[in-house]
Amino acid sequence: MKHIVYETTNKINGKKYIGKHSTDDLDDGYLGSGSSLKSAINKYGKENFERVTLKEFNTEQEAYEYEEELVTMDIVTNDVYYNLMGGGDGGTKIISIEVRKIMSLAKKGKYDGENNPNYGKRGKDSHWFGKHHTEETKKKMSEAQRNRTFTEHHKNVSIRNLEKIPKNVKCEYCGKICSKGNYVRWHGKNCKTKGDGI
Questions:
Q1: Whole-model pTM?
Q2: How does pLDDT run across 129-142, given as a tens digit for each residue?
Q3: Rounded Cα–Cα distance for residues 87 and 18 (Å)
Q4: Which homologous superfamily does the CATH classification assign to the domain defined by 2-87?
């Protein structure tokens, strides 16, 4: 098995994609798996893309590390590249704060407030009201999580990123201390006591 870091180029507009690929056949025609790259291939045709190997490695871990060195924030935010997130093991990589900000700005207002099809729908008006996952679905969801395998690289990336996230956040409006997820969903700008002088 060969492990490479490659660059795929759109011969029509010059846009590029950097990725990592493991294969027994370097001429397998693989161009990349990024969603924006796949859309471009569908639009322009596979024949208008070419892949070159930037570097070959003995292990997948080494290839991921090199990809992580190359695909930086400068690449992700550059319109010349199809890459949407930083390099490394994309299966578990947590999107960086900088990329989240860029994605947030791009979608700002798109589904806010009344633009959201589920805006204001609670109780029986909610699209999920009265619905429940079947026991079979619950079992499948449970098994999918239970059977996931993580390499040392997965674990190291997860630990590094979790260390960057504060465990608890205090709401500036109601003063409640909660997890970051609950803060984003129920507190801060969404806090019920906002504007009540508290």
A1: 0.48
A2: 888 889 999 998 88
A3: 8
A4: GIY-YIG endonuclease (3.40.1440.10)
Give dist(CA 175, CA 196) in Å, integer: 13
Asked whether 161 and 94 are in contact (CB, 8 A), the reply is yes
d(CA 86, CA 139) in angstroms, rounded, equals: 33
- State the burial class of residue 97 (Cβ atoms within 10 Å of its Cβ: 0-12, 13-18, 19+): exposed
For residue 163, give the 3-state DSSP assignment. Answer: helix
- Alpha-carbon distance of 84 to 90, in angstroms, equals 11
- 50 bridge partner residues: 9
SS3 93: coil
Q: What is the pLDDT of residues 179-189, one digit of tens each?
A: 877 888 888 88
Name which of 78, 75, 81, 77 is nearest 103 in CA terms: 77
**Residue boundaries of the structural domains of the chain:** 2-87, 164-198
Cα–Cα distance, 15 to 32 (Å, whole number): 13
User: Across-strand partners of 49?
Assistant: 10
